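Per-record layout

source: Sapajus apella
name: Synaptotagmin-7
length: 403
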Amino acid sequence: MYRDPEAASPGAPSRDVLLVSAIITVSLSVTVVLCGLCHWCQRKLGKRYKNSLETVGTPDSGRGRSEKKAIKLPAGGKAVNTAPVPGQTPHDESDRRTEPHSSVSDLVNSLTSEMLMLSPGSEEDEANEGCSRENLGRIQFSVGYNFQESTLTVKIMKAQELPAKDFSGTSDPFVKIYLLPDKKHKLETKVKRKNLNPHWNETFLFEGFPYEKVVQRILYLQVLDYDRFSRNDPIGEVSIPLNKVDLTQMQTFWKDLKPCSDGSGSRGELLLSLCYNPSANSIIVNIIKARNLKAMDIGGTSDPYVKVWLMYKDKRVEKKKTVTMKRNLNPIFNESFAFDIPTEKLRETTIIITVMDKDKLSRNDVIGKIYLSWKSGPGEVKHWKDMIARPRQPVAQWHQLKA
């Protein structure tokens, strides 16, 4: 009787069973190895991604301008600006860092992702967009009174997170010091060039000032952005009644800056849209309409028109402007302007929107300005990022006009 030599003997596993067992064993081994490799890769990639998110700082400048040494006050005293306290290290310069140079292709690939990563994008932010108050930064100062010498001492120390007022994405801040209600006599700190976190460490002495009159005054600090060729732009202010301060010793304060009460907050608003086309290397700016513009003429109205400047770094490249709307504080423009902007220049590009009041007999007045770039104020930066995130789509937003 013929017996198959490969036939399994009773009780022994068949060839198919052995083959399946071998396949399962090999599969399990490969799975273990792959899991180990994946875990190793994730650790390496995670570390590399973490390193790629390191940030860089902003250069600081310490150049200042001349200051008044003494001022005669109505009360018979004088105000003196002294040098920094001996033994203290001035903080005029912060560490300088530079962004790593990248190629054009790297810039094209990273712009959108970078803007999206920095963009607020939350539903709460969008809901509060129209009513949220802009962060104007904060200032540190100290104040005290010397009874023996009848001298009030005010020290301006530093400020943090100031908004950018210049088209270059920075500011040149300095501080004016008043003892209200006297506005004729003031003292000023030095100007800190291109610095949003300036250190002054300047001390001012109001000498020969009786304590009875000191407690009747209000210490008023106004932070401004210095402009060599035009009016200085107000950044924010702080006021503190001296009768609410313990002047027997130096008291140090951190105060949030508030909008300056010089009318800059009531200049009106402008609705405009931005449309970025990366394939055509262009941005289309549509000036839609304005509302509640400040009346600049004697008759209680204005003749507004809008200028649009394209800036690259610190240079003016191209200017466009709308027609003039006669005697209208709520004009509708609906005019579009196209600007050629290569992608590699987008980082250093700023669009300045200026609403002007036309005047035939004298110089045209500035009603308000808007600076649009990826490093301007919070509202402007959001608009810029939304434009980058939604290419070839018009993105409209209301903007508060600023001085």
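summary: Residues 15-52 form the longest helix (38 residues). The longest strand covers residues 151-160.
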